[in-house]
Amino acid sequence: MEAARRLARRRRDIQPGLTAAEFDRIEQQYGFTFADDHRAFLAAGLPTGGNFPDWRDGDPADLRRQLAWPIDGVLFDVEHNGFWHDSWGDRPADAVTAARTLLTGVPALVPVYSHRYLPAGRGTSGHPVMSIYQTDIVYHGTDLADYIDREFSAGHPGPDRQQPRATVAFWRDFLRD
Known about the structure:
Blueprint: H1 2-9, E1 14-15, H2 20-30, H3 36-44, E2 46-47, H4 60-81, H5 95-103, E3 109-113, E4 116-119, E5 129-133, E6 136-141, H6 144-152
Antiparallel strand pairs: 1-2, 3-4, 4-5, 5-6
Helix pairs in contact: 1-6, 4-5
């Protein structure tokens, strides 16, 4: 897995990768499935320390907060910044409650590092990594390997190899090309 090799070259603390049993436990406990490339990355080696989610030994409450971060950020902007997604129709008086209900159907995102996320979902891979802070969402890598280069290189890794393609419903509406 190229992303794991790139991270290892940057001398990050990497523990043995997650096992099939650990993936099963995590996915059952938190109600999502890892995308195939994210799964392969974590199976090759589990990055630890800093702002990496500790999928093996982390505090479940912390992991739940990290998983909730994207939705909580949208709800914050609905409540405090007047945000209302175009697909939701007219903004109701109790916009936060309505948004919370509407957001139950959006694709799940899984933290990679800090507020960098990949979409969940077995059978999928090659998604761009998104940096998410409320409804300010930008590409932070064309894929997981490119993201590792950009986040952990001493300098800028060079020009973009390609324009990222928006891959996940709802969240792609926030991305600026």
